[in-house]
Amino acid sequence: MAGEKVSDMWLVTEHMTTEEWVRVAAALGGRTGARARRGSSTRRFVNAVLWVAQTRACWSDLPPLFGPWHSVYVRFLRWMRGDQWHAVVEALQEGGPKEELRRMIQLYVDKGIARDMRRKVLAAHASGAQLGMREA
After folding, report:
1. How many other C-beta atoms are found inside a 10 Å radius of the C-beta of residue 68?
2. What is the largest CA-CA distance in the chain?
3. Claim: this prediction has a pTM higher than 0.85
4. What are phi and psi of 42, to 5 degrees?
5. How far are the Cα atoms of 49, 59, 90, 129 from residue 46, in angstroms, in the given order?
6. For the chain, counts of helices (H) and of strands (E)
7. Predicted confidence pLDDT, tens digits, the chain (136 residues)
């Protein structure tokens, strides 16, 4: 166990099938040919995100076969902002990876909503404090 990374202990039993990939590729349209800066394919990227969703591991525990974890994470966030993940979820078969991906997407959506609310509250508080200073 010494010297072994956490990711080496988690084996993913479910990757996208070829049939699922065909549906995901069709749902994504032109994005399937898009490659990350380091040249990773879209299918490998989606499988990397499915690995994180299924294992509930930290992004930094992503096995090297999926590429640099930070690149996968940043691309995942870009796809969240672009709303591409809903098309991927709908293209996957019912069961394990689909439900785990849906859970992870909802977690990130909830975090984004909470972050936006916190920013609004802080902005309102800051503007109120500034107004109070001007009146004095």
Report:
1. 14
2. 68
3. no
4. -65, -40
5. 5, 13, 14, 46
6. 6, 0
7. 444 444 444 555 567 788 888 888 888 876 555 554 544 588 899 999 989 888 888 899 999 988 999 999 999 888 888 888 888 888 887 776 778 888 888 887 777 677 777 777 877 777 765 544 444 4
